[in-house]
Amino acid sequence: MRKQYEPSKLLHAGVLFLTFAATANAAGQSPADASVSTESQKTHSAAPREATEQYRYTNRLIRAKSPYLLLHAHNPVEWYPWGDEAFEKARKENKPIFLSIGYFTCHWCHVMEKESYSDPSVAAILNQYFVSIKVDREERLDIDRLYIAYVEATTGSAGWPLNVMLTPDRKPFFGGTYFSPDQLKSLLQKVADAWSKQHDSVTQTAGRAAQQLIEIVSKQSPATGDLQPAILDQAYKQIASTYDATNGGFGGAPKFPRPVTLCFLLRYYVRTGQRDALDMTLNTLRAMERGGIHDQLGGGFHRYSTGASWLVPHFEKMLYDQAQLSIVYTEAYQITHDRFYAETTRNILDFALREMQQPRGGFASAADADSRMALGKPETSEGVFYIWTTKEVESVLSKQDAAVFDYAYGVESGGNVPAHQDARGELSGKNVLYEAQSTDETAKKFGLTIEQTADKLTAARKALLVARSRRPQPPLDDKIVTAWNGMVVSALARASQTLDEPHYLESAQTTAKFLETHLYDSKTGKLWRSYRAGGPSVDGFLDDYTDLISGLLDLYQAGFDVHWLKWAVSLQEKQDQFFGAAKEGGYFDAGTSDPSVLSRTRESYDGAEPSPNSTAAMNLLRLAQFTDRADWRDKAQKTLSAFAARLQSTPEAVPALASALDFRLAQKKQVLIAGDPTSQDTRELLRQVYTRLLPNKVLLLADGGAGQQQLARWLPFVAGAHRMQGHATA
């Protein structure tokens, strides 16, 4: 899923070990956005291992808050967190740094932790010849984005786990992804040998690589010409050229939902009336909902499919996927008014509220793919919580009901997982549930009415969900990430009004209040990145500001509490101050607080999440409509222009940025409604807005009170808005 940088000038940077690396990675598994198992499964959420067991080894990661770092705290590897202590040790002892980056729910990160980093023979090499540093990519986006750019540029692709060799001053000279234990040991020996015998050559290579890496991540190609609507047409054509008409979705295996693409296509349909843009999106949404990537019993969506169809997923469930997909399904409902899309939205959000919302507020980051195979036993396996044998189904349902369920949900006696999609044999003989047959087809097969069949399948799903709940639960990465919680605020706020579900709005407001209380410093105006174990982590990144601002704009338009709009304005001002790239245009991903990072990056690729620069451009355009601030219109234009070359050449890589361009090119709509938000006539007018997809509008409420007074300070024309003849007026 990561394809931001093409292999180019940096290819020579890994020349010492590139031949070996190609062999090693080819033998391993594709690591793209995978998932991790843990020993901390006595509770549903992540916990330090020492809380439940005695361990032979303990390293410096024991003091971390990150569940991913704590996962490695009892490895025999002498891990360090990123910081001066590790850098000083590497400098004093003249050792290379072994940097390993991953995240808690990444399956192949779990595999390396279990197979390699728990192996004393691997640890012995690392401890003797290297200084080993562990980084949670979800906590340190700045480090991850820098070194993943290096691996992409030297190898053509990258993912997690990400393993990079650095000089003591953090300059990279080799990188790769997953390595088996034998491959890793051989690689480490080769690197240690080269460091000893070819030290000057290695450091010179690293110096050149660092210079070129800084150039790659900090500079953009110059644009040619203005940003015209033709760019949107080109984006549509590039996306359409990769459409999989057989299975839905785009491209082949592995297949990602990539909501940013679907949102762009819906906008393009509204702009042009191009029916194919809508049909590709709706077909994809239906295929995903029917597939194994959708948890047919518990709701929500897994991370991605390992094949070209949506059958066999990597089983982790990420908060950012739930948030973005619920928005896409909501928008599909606004266009079609088909209850299927509304029900899928509810299915996603109800899962997130039930399984990911934390007791004190905020939402956990992700649910793991791996879980224990049996209660009281340490062995873990990917997907074991979600998969079924025919015998297991029959132990819960009657023979007749099991036959109906098996037919409808593709359960086969020998299992339905293709061998080539089960790299480690963990799913052999098991079944991933998916909608193999429609209710109508199932009814015909068993001579039942549609109503009887639907009732049987509903009862069966409930019974199997209860039975599944008795299995060892997949652990949660329970850190509360500001950016992803901002996305959830958006999702809940938008669904609350479109689907007329007030409790979603209450949850959105509660989440925003949690973020304001625990992840915001009102004295400095700064955000923190994440919250866990009673406190925040590092300073917030650009993503945290952009995603939260977007959420607050949606929250205002759902409940019309102007406090959220004022906070969004304040956060935007701080974002401009902390992250603005005045010379280059757009925004840096990180502030200037950590001099140990070689260079600040400016992310533009819209992958599993929209890039923060894409969201920033959209936020600025929306805020300009709320506040009439010309400087924000100008900053939005400069952000679009900063990445114009990419918009012009490969707009398929930046669909969220293309959506922002669509907003800038469209006729702006400020929908102003004067009325009491609690009265029926006002709600009826609002309903006319909420039940349509109007992507390039902002919604304002003249409530006759403090909210209207604040809006009038930004937009004087709002001051005179009032109800006419005693009725709410638009």
Question: How would you describe the overall organization of this protein?
Answer:
This protein has 730 residues and is α+β, with helices and mostly antiparallel strands. Helices cover 48% and strands 9% of the residues. The strands form 7 sheets. A 5-stranded mixed β-sheet has the order 1-3-2-4-5, with helices on both faces. A hairpin with a 4-residue loop joins strand 14 (520-521) and strand 15 (526-527).
Keywords:
730 residues; alpha+beta; five-stranded mixed β-sheet; three-stranded antiparallel β-sheet; 27 helices; 48% helix; disordered N terminus
Chart the SSEs and their pairings.
Elements: H1 18-27, H2 67-71, E1 79-81, H3 84-93, E2 97-102, H4 107-117, H5 120-129, E3 131-136, H6 141-155, E4 162-166, E5 172-176, H7 181-197, H8 199-218, H9 230-240, H10 259-272, H11 275-290, E6 304-305, E7 313-314, E8 317-318, H12 319-336, H13 339-356, E9 366-367, E10 370-372, E11 380-382, H14 390-394, H15 399-408, H16 439-446, H17 450-468, E12 476-477, E13 480-481, H18 482-498, H19 502-518, E14 520-521, E15 526-527, E16 530-532, E17 535-536, H20 542-559, H21 562-579, H22 612-627, H23 630-642, H24 644-649, H25 655-665, E18 669-674, H26 680-690, E19 697-702, H27 706-714
Parallel strand pairs: 1-3, 2-3, 18-19
Antiparallel strand pairs: 2-4, 4-5, 6-7, 8-9, 9-12, 10-11, 13-16, 14-15, 16-17
In short:
The protein is of the alpha+beta class and 730 residues long. The chain is built from 27 helices and 19 strands.
